[in-house]
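Need tokens for this chain, all 239 residues.
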Amino acid sequence: MALELQRVTATTTQVAEVLRWLERRGTKKNRDGMARYAIVAPKVFGVSMATMKTLAKRLGRDHALALALWKTGWYEARILTSFVDEPQRVTPAQMDRWARDFDNWAVCDSLCFHLFDRTPHAWRKVHEWSARPEEFVRRAAFALLASMALHDKQAPDAPFVRALSLVERAAADERNFVKKAVNWALRGIGRRNVALNRRAITVARRLSVSPPGPRRWVGKDALRELTSDAVQRRLTKRP
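Here are the structure tokens for all 239 residues:
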């Protein structure tokens, strides 16, 4: 009990030190720049991503610290959790709680790209969150799918083929942050290899001939990249 109390006290002290460090480095210029890119949060210091990454390297991996940082509600503290938390200790319940807290695309994408896609629960959450109505939870499903398409080099094609049906279904979502993530996921799958490229192009072509709206935009934008000479050359050169 005493040892646990010492750990909690040490984590609380460290969180306070992290917040002071971030506050000293926050600027109005950075806050204004974030706002221009639609990064809006109720509590934000205005610290650049590059600066936050230097701190993350110093902190290292610490699950308890990540949980405590998230609870502060500060934008920068939540970005840090994506580099600090331990993927194997992240639970499905934690992922759901944090996803419900997402209030901007930057926190959503950072968590999916640097942490959630490395957990053993990633595919489960792609399927679950793709059906959720909340804008940033649904975005998280496809940001997570796009992240796995890029990072998981050993994954077989089958789960990505199945995920294309989720992409096609969600492409009708008119919300900007959702449709952009859906497009990102479709392009990510189609860049993995020749076989998935063909599958993704088939979906993109089908979407591209939809009536004007998000489905057409997602399809045409993805089709332009997936059929490009650059992508085709890179895929055919792979062993």
